[in-house]
Design brief:
Length: 445
């Protein structure tokens, strides 16, 4: 009997310990999550010394550049035309509510004034200025939130060992202290959380710790033996500094304890058109990211730009899938954004100036959303986004809502509809169709 009581007490103690360790978001964090879900559209910026070479952000890996040669890049990185005010104004004119920028990408170079390492833009370049600080101050002035992208993998740091499947030809010694690297990583993350006014972190790199390239999207199952990222320790440190900071991690898995939003790379939530997506959708706020052309970082030869129609359609589909859209630009070595990208963002902003009410602050409308008719909802307003490729006759099954009235959003004129046996029929005359997205506003009873 005493033994049973002891075991029962031990179970209770273990449960108490586990419950203490379980992450419970603060009131401020939950409020930040709501803001994040309402924001819907953000600017992603991939920028670093790799832009000098005009071959995107993975150039160190793709060209097998050794550390000692790569370290020459900061010595002639001098983005004298970088203008934080112009960048933030560009984002605002595009209708974006937040900016996420690479504070450290896989090459290990910090784009802020890190006290942990001199391998940063202030100490290792002729430019000598903290662009992250300048963006922080400009975001404060213009009412835009700022997120810090931080790569957890590091092609430069000698203690990032054992190697993952990337950058194995950088000339680093085949030895290292994994614990020392985690301490280094956490020290940089800590200074970002403490010293900058940011809204949260966008982590990347977990997937590198699969032994082989073909297994990288299954890193949880194929983790290199002995590797532990100790994510909960990192996340707890961040939330202890500021509980409202939002944390997301691009690990292509369901969210882990301590994370505040779930991200999907180059795909809508739950989709897998890329081959590395397909993660189940959790219960946290969602975000999907995509590029304007085909590259994240500046690529001189990449002129395959997505059209305004494609990107607006993707924004609408993201909102209809309950997700934000984080759209990337890769500034040139001088700090300027390509004119083509500025023009595309400006056109998206013009569209949002008219239709933003049907995107911002909404949640997923009808559970059934296809690629032609997307729905968003706010309160008693249901918005049907009829994309350009849809026909004139719409048939929406399983419609179990009651309609008070239905109008075209743009000119507020009524649209005829028929709702019978949970099946909604609408006809859109050709002269009412918009070039990209015909929006129908339905007021529900």
């Amino acid at each position: 009997m005493k033994k049973l009581l002891f075991l029962f007490s031990l179970v209770l103690v273990c449960q108490a310990i586990n419950s203490q360790e379980k992450y419970t978001p603060s009131k401020e964090n939950l409020e930040a999550r709501t803001w994040f879900q309402d924001a819907k559209f953000g600017l992603f910026i991939h920028w670093g010394v790799y832009s000098n070479l005009g071959d995107a952000e993975w150039v160190m890996q793709n060209q097998d550049i050794t550390v000692d040669r790569y370290e020459l890049l900061p010595t002639f990185f001098n983005p004298i035309d970088f203008n934080a005010q112009e960048i933030v104004e560009m984002a605002k004119k595009a209708g974006m509510k937040y900016i996420t920028i690479t504070t450290k990408h896989h090459d290990g170079f910090a784009m802020y004034d890190s006290k942990v390492s001199d391998y940063n833009i202030v100490k290792a370049t002729p430019y000598g200025k903290d662009i992250f600080r300048m963006l922080e101050q400009e975001c404060q002035k213009q009412g835009v939130k700022l997120f810090a992208y931080y790569s957890q993998l590091d092609w430069h740091h000698q203690d990032y060992f054992p190697r993952g499947w990337t950058a194995r030809k950088t000339g680093r010694p085949e030895a290292g202290e994994w614990g020392a690297y985690l301490d280094y990583q956490n020290a940089q993350i800590k200074e970002l959380a403490e010293n900058y006014d940011i809204a949260g972190f966008w982590f990347d790199g977990w997937w590198d710790q699969a032994p082989e390239k073909e297994d990288w999207h299954k890193a949880v199952e194929f983790r290199i033996e002995g590797i532990d990222w100790e994510l909960e320790r990192t996340y707890k440190m961040i939330h202890d500094i500021d509980s409202k900071l939002l944390i997301g991690n691009n690990h292509h898995e369901l969210p882990f304890e301590g994370e505040d939003f779930q991200m999907f790379e180059k795909d809508l939530p739950g989709k897998n058109t890329t081959g590395f997506g397909g993660a189940d959708i959790g219960k946290l706020p969602l975000e999907t990211c995509e590029t304007i052309n085909q590259s994240w970082g500046f690529n001189l030869q990449d002129d395959r730009h997505k059209s305004v129609q494609e990107l607006i359609s993707y924004l609408v589909k993201a909102a209809g899938n309950n997700a934000n859209f984080l759209l990337n630009v890769g500034p040139m070595p001088n700090g300027k954004v390509q004119k083509e990208h500025i023009d595309i963002l400006k056109a998206m902003g013009a569209w949002l100036a008219v239709y933003g009410e049907t995107i911002y602050g909404t949640r997923q409308g009808l559970a059934r959303a296809d690629d032609k008719v997307i729905s968003t909802r706010r309160g008693d307003k249901l918005y049907l986004h009829v994309l350009e490729e849809a026909g004139n006759e719409l048939l929406i099954p399983d419609f179990d809502l009651k309609i008070k009235k239905a109008i075209y959003f743009k000119d507020k004129t009524p649209i005829k509809f028929e709702l019978k046996k949970r099946e909604l029929k609408l006809t859109i005359p050709e002269d009412k169709k918009e070039a990209i997205d015909t929006v129908i506003e339905i007021t529900l009873k």
